[in-house]
Specification:
homodimer, 16 strands, alpha+beta
Chain lengths: ~675, ~675
């Protein structure tokens, strides 16, 4: 997701609307399978349900803090438009073939027992989308439904349970929390049930093939099923139908065994189709995940969080677990906002908002990529910029990625005008998601520990709630330029321009009554103390949280690693726990498929960088930050991840040894 | 609000859309002023954000419990369509003139400092409205904004503050929570401010009339205003304008005093208009409130709660306070669902859902009222039932009210075919709002204490969370028919058919380990204990909560009575407190206007019931429940309210003396 202002839409890409979805899905799967990379974008009903966005994004958040804030205050919004654009390079024509899809998604309740999702809307976000011509009718009337893995499992179980009941070969089970569950026939229903039993007796004796009972209540139907179940379901087929007046009634038919099996099979098929429809949009995400392809987004942290949260399962409490889950769903991510913010781009790109970035990347030294769109796909016209929808944003994001990737080729000897999405040159940008408005940590490192910038020039100041920024300027007026990052009404971080002033500030404040100054290190220490006391799991829990990047890459994947970890170290909410246990083989399957794909890509990538050994300036810079060297064996990555992880654990004991950050990201917001 | 299923809409009533609102408002005010009564209906984005609707509406809720649940779990939804239909009887033609309005409302943020409202959507509710053809684009793109009293006051203050600053005649104040507030010019801005000061010096010396500064940031503009303010605003007019590129810049003009005053006046006028636009839909509710007219709704408790919550101010914590607020906003309410559920209608009306009720009321012994709709108002066609929108529902609700009111006239000697909305015959139905799914309390009595049904045949049972309804049937199998009302996973009310079995049940349960049985009285007592401990105000707080019905009726109204009470007895959230303090004279004003209207209506009503002294069956029944006798002096009502209040206070000490309920409402859901 990105935030910007554009004109209202004038057209639609393929794939919108629930009715077209079934038709679009095979085309989408094909597009994903043949793609070199996939660009995505999401639109939400809001950003922050708690603090203002400025409080949500404190400039000195740690990555863990930021993740927790976003998880707590953003996940209750709905991702209701998902754009996806596939890009496939055509070697012969030297152009990219693009296929753009724009999906409206909405958690339409599937049946009476399916979850009735509640989501928050923020009026400013809704108003912004409205001003861009967003079609709310399309999303609410014909948005595509979706289910998480857990919800799908539950629904499947419901079907199986019901089937078992009707066949008379399962125990009588009760739907949880339904006051309708009965084994006992209430007094006032006994006469009614008796007449039903009589009718069935008659049917068994006479020559009719079936009997239609009178329309009755759901409770009565339940009683009838139960009664027939416990007696003589063998030669009978019992079915609920609807008459012209939309009233439901039960039809009981005499069937032989073969007919009964046939009907059951038909029903099972129908149910499987219903189930597929209910899983709906989640199948798109599963197809993308299964492909293992590079997924590109712009400022994509919230897009990734929402995508996983809605279509895979609730995002975990801890950042490290989120990273693990994300890498198992999307093994290769590139964030174009982050890419544009670091070397070698940051010197020549000054505004990294999507619209501005796209404008910049069609000018020198960049080159606008040539694209073509197959006939049956709606093409987007970038020159008119008439569209605002996720499909368009995904398309533009892909274009930006190609321009920047190709620019990297100009550093090679000889220069190359096309750089593949699988090129080793792109590895330094892999799996680093842009962190909005953090002063000294430009990105979340999805496949390893995060940067640990020195913050020894930062003070943590608490004060009366009447204080304003000007009071802080006043207080520190002797210290030259300062930077204030508000935390809440009564506290803020104050960054001094010179670290050696920190002790002076603290000394002068020692006897102050209205305010209090601590070093950043003291602040973090006291926070960690309070967090440790609040933790529900053993204090040695950290030792268990080994970052299983290796496991992830070798196919054990999301569901396994994740559930094992959780069940060991802490009590979690029942729903999450259940989800992890129930998670069927599909993700594991996706992961093993991914493994193969990744290997294939790896060799291709090596071919790509042949001749790029001459060290290029920006590559050197990247290396310092723990990025891959070109030519480094790809299989090393998991091991590196593990080593870094250990390093991180050490750091909390001895913060001083952490190397200073080498990044110097321009403040582009 | 009512819940039902109807076909998609085929037309629109007058008044929808923000653009048409300004034009519609005077017509609406006129319609309200001339109306005999006003019917309303609202559509929301959801019903319950917490428990399922069945848990939200336990059959044995006390009125206080129900109110608290609705307040907690329903107020976060948005009322986003408001229907209003005025009915005026034309004596000459013997028909009702109807004017229907259908408003889409949406809390579009007014400016950057205005509240960014978050609201919850429930997918089942959204899906239901979508299936009825609800136009979400209309609501989100051109919904009419609104403000509560408090929000309006805040906005007005903002304007005044800003005006004060610009005129240089107020203190420099800071917008709360804005990190932009400064008195100190930061180092890096000093050169910039110096150039501005130089330009102003030049302007004052040369013959130019004005100077345009370069476009600059909001922060810089703030600094400029501040600098000019503190020096020489007298002969200068400072204004922020926008250039072709939508960049903001400051224009400084030399003006004489008269010119400056003229400009200020113009600006003030513009601001007043902006303020009116921002108050938007709330003006409709104020007009209705000011009129003091009878307001009719169908199952209207949530409609009333939402209307007050969104357009007047947050609904109070306590039911009694809510009643007081409601009566000050809408002094006369009639709920057609309640009306249809009690005597003399309950025997002849078996389905009280709005659609079914309307169908019933056009058949004998009822008579469909004749209506006419003026030319410039869209008329609704009830025979095609093509519309589903709040305006249509309001219209239908009004028709139902008229049919039932006229039916009362058949009991008079001689019978009357038209009964005025002001007739004394309707008084027994005043201010009683239907309570959904409460077994033994049919309504919330808005102008006095609620019914206190005997519940000595009810048991409170707690048990392991694995238990289902069938386990409870099992447990009580010796006691004949029982009725189970689930409270949560581990508790339920069980109503026995015979009160004398209660002690037996309790005795037999004494040594049970897995479950526990208490009488309803014990349950209530233990609840009250725990509530008392949790209370933030003095335990003698109840003594303060004198129900000021009398005060309400004599014009002291909402803001006064309410804020006085609150500030005395408890700490409340700042926003609510502020609201009560800030509440300007408008509500009080409304109340005094209402007083006059009410008096006027009173005399008319007396004229109406002349000749109705022959006691009619249903009237007698009503009287037993504390309804008014026909011919009873209307001014007595407040006094009766007070007496009943005392009675209620006594009840908590001695529940046994409470008379048994006389109502016997059919279970129509």
């Amino acid at each position: 997701m990105h935030m910007g202002f554009r004109a209202p839409p004038a057209g639609r890409a393929a794939g919108s609307g629930s009715a077209h979805f079934k038709e679009a899905l095979p085309r989408l799967c094909e597009a994903v399978e043949e793609a070199d990379f996939i660009a995505i974008d999401g639109e939400f009903t809001g950003i922050s349900d708690g603090p203002s966005v400025s409080a949500l994004t404190n400039g000195l958040d740690t990555p863990e803090e930021r993740y927790c804030k976003l998880r707590k205050h953003s996940m209750n919004f709905l991702l209701f438009q998902f754009g996806l654009c596939t890009f496939k390079y055509d070697q012969n024509q030297s152009i990219y073939i693009t296929k753009a899809f724009n999906f409206y998604v909405f958690p339409k309740p599937f049946n009476r027992t399916s979850p009735d999702i509640k989501f928050i809307c923020q009026s400013s976000s809704i108003d912004f989308l409205a001003s861009q011509g967003f079609d709310f009718n399309k999303v609410f009337r014909s948005g595509i439904p979706y289910l998480t893995q857990e919800e799908e499992s539950q629904l499947r179980e419901q079907y199986e349970e019901r089937r078992g009941q009707i066949n008379g070969n399962g125990p009588i089970t009760y739907t949880p929390n339904s006051s309708m569950s009965v084994s006992h026939v209430p007094e006032d229903q006994r006469a009614f049930i008796k007449t039903v039993e009589d009718k069935v007796e008659d049917l068994l004796k006479n020559s009719e093939k079936s009997v239609d009972l009178e329309p009755c209540t759901g409770f009565q139907r339940k009683l009838i099923y139960q009664t027939l179940n416990s007696r003589q379901s063998k030669g009978l087929h019992v079915e609920t139908l609807e008459n012209d007046k939309k009233e439901r009634f039960i039809q009981i038919s005499k069937v032989d065994d073969e007919e009964r099996r046939r009907r059951e099979q038909q029903k099972q098929q129908r149910e499987q189709e219903e189930l597929n429809d209910a899983v709906g949009f989640s199948r798109v995400i599963r197809a993308v995940s299964k492909s293992g392809k590079l997924v590109v987004g712009h400022n994509m942290l919230l897009d990734v969080m929402h995508t996983i949260h809605q279509f895979c399962g609730p995002v975990p409490e801890e950042l490290d677990d989120f990273k693990e889950v994300t890498m198992s769903v999307f093994p290769r991510l590139v964030d174009t906002k982050l890419m544009a913010s670091i070397q070698p781009f940051k010197e020549i790109i000054h505004n990294t908002s999507l619209g501005e970035l796209h404008k910049r990347l069609i000018e020198k030294p960049f080159k606008s990529p040539q694209t073509e769109c197959p006939e049956n796909f709606q093409s987007y016209d970038t020159s008119s910029e008439q569209l605002h929808e996720a499909g368009y944003d995904a398309y533009i994001t892909g274009l930006c990625f190609i321009s920047m990737a190709n620019y990297l080729g100009t550093f090679l000897t000889p220069p190359k005008s096309h750089i593949s999405a699988r090129s080793k040159l792109l590895e330094p940008f892999y799996n680093k998601l842009f962190l909005m408005r953090v002063i000294d940590i430009p990105y979340l490192n999805m496949c390893g520990p995060d940067l640990q910038p020195k913050r020894d020039h930062v003070l943590y100041v608490t004060f009366p709630k009447e204080w304003k920024t000007c009071d802080l300027y006043q207080l520190f007026s002797a210290f030259g330029n300062i930077q204030v990052s508000w935390i809440d009404d009564t506290s803020a971080f104050v960054s001094l321009s010179q670290t050696d002033q920190v002790q002076i500030a603290i000394n002068t404040s020692r006897y102050a009554e209205s305010y209090r100054i601590q070093t950043y290190a003291e602040y973090i220490q006291s926070r960690q103390k309070s967090t440790n006391t609040n933790r529900r799991w053993a204090s040695d829990g950290w030792a268990d949280t080994s970052y299983s990047a290796a496991a992830m890459m070798t196919g054990s994947g999301f569901s396994h690693g994740h559930s094992r970890q959780h069940s060991k170290k802490r009590s979690i909410s029942p729903s999450l726990e259940e989800q992890n246990c129930n998670a069927d083989s599909s993700w594991t399957h996706y992961c093993s498929v991914k493994k193969i794909k990744t290997d294939g890509d790896g060799s291709q990538a090596q071919a790509d960088v042949s001749g790029s050994d001459g060290a290029v300036d920006w590559l050197g810079q990247q290396t310092d930050e723990g990025g891959s060297y070109p030519g480094q064996d790809q299989e090393e990555e998991p091991i590196r991840g593990k080593r870094n992880r250990k390093h991180k654990k050490r750091k909390s004991d001895d913060a001083e040894t952490t190397p200073p950050p080498l990044f110097d990201v321009p403040q582009v917001w």
